[in-house]
Structures are given as structure tokens and as C-alpha cells.
Amino acid sequence: MDNYKPEVTLSIEEMQKLAEFLKKRIGIHLDEDKIRRFKKKIELLMLKHHITSFSSFYHRIRFAKDEVLLQDLINSVTVNETYFWREHQQFEILANEILPALAKQKKDIRILVAPTSSGEEVYSIMFAILEEGRVIEKANIEMVGIDIDSNMIRKAKVGLYTQRSVEKLPKYMREKYFKKVGTYYQIDDMFKQNAKFLQANIFDEELSQKLKTFDIVFSRNMLIYFDKKEKEKVFNLFYKILDPKGYLFLGHADANGIDKTMFKPIKSGFHIYQKI
User: Per residue in 160-195, pLDDT tens?
Assistant: First the structure.
């Protein structure tokens, strides 16, 4: 009996019920492929919390409102694959074209990255701005990254990255903005202090009040996980939090379903839009 190890095996029906709950709670859509992919992770999560029945697990996240367990579940099903300098042409257009034009009109510029994952995108934007050099002397730029995954927010604040994460960065940038710590790369503290990272749900109805408004929003490779209805909610949020004529940067697969009465494309092929 001392060697007994409890096991958990979730049925497809139980996973579908969980998927319905997650869609209502955080908006993420888990299709059949994702349900199969995340099944083992959730079974292991239940064992970690000493839960062996689905009914107990479901009751704790839905009715007992166990926030620690719920956050662990959210962290298990969110996808956080990213790296520095990903689709870097957008960063360069921002730093060399859009920000210089904005800096002629206003002193304070706010940029939101949603989702931020572990911070690579926020810091990549920062590097592009610093490399351009002129805008940073004329404007105060505030950068905010949000993500529903609390583990990713912690990683972003620490700013410690693997070789794989930074390998797309030019060598001189790695040497300029990081300190080598063993096999890892640590963002220099002077750059970390210019970024703010917050754990937040994009579907939080009070989010726009908490964050205020922005001149620029980056949202890349998130909308592909939402269905049409949830995408509409996100685009409505972005429209609400963007200042007049603000800019929206999307990933190559995110623009399907964008409301062209709200946003117009301004850079063909680069998935950059402006609020109408």
C-alpha cells in the first residue's frame, strides 16, 4: 500500500465540460485537438493539488472559487511560445515611422502588449526604440505588458532568458542589453525598470478602466485561439482603449474578422491597423 500512487483519467466529456467553463471564464476556445493536447497536463495538475475526481476539481474552480487552483489551470492551458525579435519588421516600422510622427504631436506615448507572455515582445519593442534613438529624447514612452498567465508575468519581471529565446536578436543587441549569467541572458536592470507587467484577463469588463488608454496596442498570436464572438469582444476592447487614430499591430493570422469600420490597414503585408 505504501507504493500506491493515485491516478486521474479524465473522459472526453469531462474535458469538454472544462473547455466550456474556460471559454466562459477567460474566452479561450479549446477545440478537440487542444482538448486532447491539454488532457494530460490537467490530469497532472489535479494530482499536484491532491484531487482525484473531476467533480471535486470542477466544484473547486467553479463554485468554491479556489483562485490558486483556477490560476494553475489557466497557466496550464495558455500557450506562451515566443522569442525576441519575432516579426521584427513591425518593431522597426514602429520605431522609425510611427513613433517619430506621434512624438511630433504629443509628449507622452503609451504602448500596450497583450498578451505579453514572458516579456520578449515588450523588450524587443524597447530595443527598437532605443536603437532609433531620437524618439526617446523627445517623448516619454510607457510600456505595459499584460497576460493572464501569472507564471509568464513573473518571468517577464525577472527578465532571465535562454539562448534559444534570444538567438534571433543581432549579436550586438545581446551584448548591449543583457548580462550573461551562466548559459542565460539577464535583461539589464536599467531597461527592466522602463516596463510594467500586469497579470490581467483581456475579457475583464473593468480592464479598460484599469489600464486607461493607449496610443499603440500590440496583440500578436492571441486572437487565433478565440472564436468569432470572442474576437469581436477583443476588437471592441482595443477600439475602446486606443486613443483617436491609435495603432493596432496584429500577428499574421490574427486579422480575420477585424471590423473594417473600426480599423483600417495602413501597411500592406505588415498587419498594422489604425483606429478610424
Answer: 999 999 999 999 999 999 999 999 999 999 888 889
Which domains, ranges and CATH numbers included, belong to the chain? Answer: 12-77 (no CATH), 88-275 (3.40.50.150)
Kindly give the pairing relationship between strand 160-161 and strand 184-187.
antiparallel
Please count the residues of the chain: 276
The pLDDT score that the predictor gives to residue 2 is 52
Beta bridge partners, 151, equal: none
211 within 8 A of 241, measured Cβ to Cβ: yes
Backbone angles phi, psi at 249, to 5 degrees: -105, 125
Q: Where are the beta strands (DSSP E) in the chain?
A: 108-113, 140-147, 160-161, 178-181, 184-187, 195-199, 214-219, 242-250, 263-267, 272-275
Amino acid identity for residue 42 in this structure? I
Which amino acid appears at position 134 of this protein?
A: R
Q: How far is CA 23 from the centre of its chain?
A: 17
